[in-house]
């Protein structure tokens, strides 16, 4: 009777898929002792989007989370997801940063490194694999599974052979969007078992509804390890439930040696915990067979819907899902997994919201066409490439070969530990704010919103759609999103009788949750906040979606040509250069670096040439 090993995903991929990576460490630690004794092959608990979410939203030190989890899981292998040369960020980092990051992760508790590259460019995996082996940890080479005219079984088999030659200990099939079918699973696993000698580990999201069948098909054809998620955060955009797969495997004559009753006890606890995070639940994290065409991965869909909601554009999700495959084809069919999923997804959102495809092109798309993420699997759209980078010649070498060492930190005042150096190297702007707040003792996570229990003993949500009667006229109001960024003035995006509007609400007294207790938060009027004018002439420059100012590239009095980049904004974790619509002189600048901005605000004004 063959034993099938299981990796439990609830502490990382499960909540990333279901509640936009918002599960806090304080809600993980209580169930760690129960997880630790169950005998999982590994427990995935770090990496992926968790590092970014900790620093950006939860205001937790991700390294401290890892240390706490290591202490709480003394008998378990802790597994992390590592994006090869991208580490846990959205660009390539120099080899010295990659090596230092792997070393620190290993020292702080990571045992298994699942290493993948969004382009399946093995050149981008070599440094990570070598570092993991150098620090005597388990290197799992990963095939980012996708379908396209250029992705077939021999393609993936050749990738696996290369990874085996570099010293990987296992090979993972990472079906991040749930695109595998039973027949494709059988063919791929069978071919891999014939071609390589390493154990096969299979990871398949349940978005299309096929993942449970795929996992069973995989083990019946020789796979050794499967990924599952505790039922409290399972299925849909996440993964087959751990309990269901244990029952199915044992019914088919396989061993797991995991007590299903003990798993169910953990589920009951986490189902209650999940209710705290109701504001991050999404209508787009269930079974959705459209994934077989749009290929949006489970880890992306909850974040994408949350980001669209914040921009007041959740009602345009279907348009975005239709645009994503078109952008992917333009870029030469990259697998949709971080960071390419974010690159393609953000560009698709821009194409939809601006109303003109590629009117605005993100810096990351430009870098992609330059070859800075690696070699595209298929042919790119030459017309779009020229729009993005002009006549520049894309790179042909390994992108990281052109990077200088990066572990030179100038902001020594905020750096307290070796881990801080790496956090700063990964996300300089976000980390600077986080480290300053941490050092000052003013750090504060995004609030967990309360449910409205005022009018009934039955728990219910605050209304998102209602009628308002004013001066005898009745208006239908539908809340479509909020741009809340922690300040007193909060933009709400609403539909008034079907017409989209932005409403700025200044909060003077707000109820928030702190350690499970309700507290009243007094807020004074923010008179220092600049009220920006609305665009009223052709020289007014605005943004298509809410974001944060990264750079203002001009000053008053500068002359610019139509098409010149004047402002860089970060939106949906991607950088977008805003270009001048006309030639002329800069006469007014209404923003500074670090400020949050919303659509329909004038950021900068150009006096057009006569």
Description:
The protein is α/β, with parallel strands linked by helices and 610 residues long. It is 34% helix and 20% strand. It contains 20 helices and 22 strands. The chain has an 8-stranded parallel barrel with strand order 1-2-3-4-5-6-7-8, surrounded by 6 helices. A 4-stranded antiparallel beta sheet has the order 9-10-11-12. A hairpin with a 2-residue loop joins β18 and β19 (574-579). α8 (153-165) packs parallel to α9, α15 crosses α16 and α19 packs across α20. It is globular.
Total beta strand runs: 22
The largest sheet has its strands arranged as 1-2-3-4-5-6-7-8
Query: What is the subunit organization of this protein?
Result: single chain
Overall body shape? globular
Structure in a nutshell:
By secondary structure, this protein is an alpha/beta fold.
Explain the layout of strands and helices.
Layout: E1 5-8, H1 10-19, H2 25-28, H3 32-36, E2 42-47, H4 50-58, H5 62-72, E3 78-82, H6 95-108, E4 112-115, H7 126-134, E5 138-144, H8 153-165, E6 170-175, H9 182-195, E7 200-204, H10 211-220, E8 225-228, H11 242-251, H12 260-274, H13 291-294, H14 298-310, H15 317-330, H16 340-354, H17 363-369, H18 382-389, H19 418-426, H20 428-440, E9 465-470, E10 473-482, E11 489-496, E12 499-506, E13 509-514, E14 517-522, E15 540-541, E16 547-552, E17 559-560, E18 565-571, E19 574-579, E20 584-589, E21 596-597, E22 604-608
Parallel strand pairs: 1-2, 1-8, 2-3, 3-4, 4-5, 5-6, 6-7, 7-8
Antiparallel strand pairs: 9-10, 10-11, 11-12, 13-14, 15-22, 16-18, 16-21, 17-20, 18-19, 20-22
